[in-house]
Amino acid sequence: MDVTHILFGVFAVMAVVSAILMVTTRNIVHCAVFLITTLLATAGVFLLLQAEFLFVTQIILYVGGIMVLFVFVIMLVNLDVSLRQVQFNRQTWVAVLLAAVLGAQLFIALWLGRNALRLPARAELIAPKNTEAIGQVLFQRYMLPFEIASILLLVAMIGAVVMAKRRV
Amino acid sequence: MGHLIPPAIMPYVVPVICGIVIVAVLPLMAGYIVLVERKVMADMQARLGPMRVGPHGLLQPIADAVKLLIKEDIIPQKADTFLFWLAPVLSVSMALIAYSAMPFGPAFQIADLNIGLLFILAVSSLGIYGIVLGGWASNSHYSLLGALRSAAQLVSYETAAGLGLLSALVLAGSLSMRDIVQAQYDQGQWFIFAAPVGFVIYLIGSIAETNRAPFDLPEAESELVAGYMTEYSGFRWSLYFLAEYANMIIVAGIATTLFLGGWLRPFPRVQMHIFGSVELMDAVPSLLFLLVAAYCFKLAPRQPAQIQKVVMAIAGLLCFGLAAVMFGSIFTPVAVKEGIHGGFWFLAKVAIYLYAFLWIRFTVPRYRFDQLMRIGWRVLIPLALVNLIAVGSALTASQVWGLSPRLTTFVLSWVVVIAVAGFLVSRQTGEKPSPAADVE
Amino acid sequence: MVSTEAYLLLGLALFTIGVIGVLTRRNVIIMLMSIELILNAVNINLIAFSRLWGDVSGQIFAIFIITDAAAEAAVGLGIILAFFRNRTTVLADEMDMLKW
After folding, report:
1. B47 is in which domain, residue-wise?
2. Cα–Cα distance between C7 and B423 in angstroms, integer?
3. B194 to chain A nearest CA, in Å?
4. Which ipTM did the prediction report?
5. Neighbour count for residue A32 (Cβ, 10 Å)
6. Do residues B220 and B302 both lie within one domain?
7. Domain count of the fold of chain B
8. What is the pLDDT averaged over residues A37-55?
9. Which of A105, A122, B363, B394 could form a disulfide with B409 if both were Cys (CB 3.0 to 4.6 A apart)?
């Protein structure tokens, strides 16, 4: 029971509680704030997994970029009447049942395969110079997906600008 | 000493002490930077500035702090109380967390992370939420508009500033703040000489990121009341204020570490001995303090009031004491000397960078919001990209052809500057004269 | 050292909550946010396995997923804004113009 266990407990509880609060809160700006705390807890989990570059990437891109976009759009489409509308749709109970079944299936899959995960984690291959290792592999083996991702981002930028523009 | 502290907590003692020093000293420092700003503003406007509260206005920050603390805490009626409370707390916490990776000299750093620079940038970008949520929670149109404008400005200039930083980062080869300063020591020069365009881009970007003039439309007093801070008063407002000045010191610290050599003295590898083992450049801090002490003693008899004479004399004595400390520490073991002198040089460079901020604030008029966004997206980001390509090609060329990296980067940076200046000048002279000139 | 199963269970919990969010809420923006939650759960799984096998490819895949999530959020929110300008609603139940 050392520091990593305690930290994992803290981050896991924070992530799950924030996620549950996010899908049940009525006020949509509060939902965005709870998603931000979930993403920060996830970033903490990445740091515990010794993925330090993913930790900062998650904070800069997800929390500092994507969620800012969400918060902007929420403030632009926010209606005062939305606080009094019905929050959950008519298929709620069926959906919760089906999600529970899905969760149970995944849990059983994990349970059946738990012996395969008994190997000691080989973090020393990736941890000490994490950023350098990611840089090496990203620009040598995965160069093509990298370029395609940049074209994808260009397409998304053009699409977002065209969709959000007012008709002249 | 080692017997009193159990070995389990030994590695945490120094970082905790550094953290306590930062949290205790920072609010006081922010208050006195405001006083310095008001005095410098007064000097540039040919007047004296605060002189009433305490001799030469030295107790002004304390009076301001007391006033803010005892002010009534007003919350608008329909404001979202949870977010209204959370927003200034977010701003201040993120500004303070960024200090944990910032080295104030070789001996004063809370944590030397492998990804220190990225961590500081990431945490600084989280400060946007303090602004956006504060503007939203105030339930006021002016606040929301000011908050959205400020957030848009921050996000735009973050990209440009980050690209400007990258051009110095390719020269350093590591993201750890300590390794970046070490790389500047190994290459024998500050990176500002190898990537001057990157420094200028980062300077402009950091002024916009901290919402300072000429990019302070979201919070200026004559526009939109006070932007996102309109509904905040008393202690909550002082939290926003502290966050802004803490952010200023952070961006100054990043610029100092990356471009101005961190805690290295000028000419870090040149050895010029005077009187035996004393280095010329090592004696410069004590000489500077002696000069300031002499100036204080010269001014003391000319003060109109008795208390001001006494304060000037005490200031002179303090500077003399600091000069003695600086000179005496040359003869202490290397770690102590590096710690004290490194701290002095780092703080001196941060002070010069902040003086540049103040200077620009009182010289240049404010930009309109659309002009601001145009500069960010259409001027700074293309320039930063071209600069990055230039520095990268210069480095590769120097490795391929075996030239010295600093010469090639320097030459190519100036090629970029001349090309951009030529482009801008040609656009200027190609414009048609305005109709008003024709009427005459 | 925390075992890999703990991380996978955390990923599973976040995934299930995200699925419930997508299927039960009426507000389209909250549905998009739940999709981001699902993508994060997948990222946790990927990085847990990357640490288990000592292969950095898992983290690279996670970087690509974050990039994709950014692109999808941008375009999705653009669509929501465009729809809101026409119909002044962001509830999925009321986006029924194609129903017969």
Report:
1. 20-70
2. 55
3. 23
4. 0.93
5. 25
6. no
7. 3
8. 94
9. B394
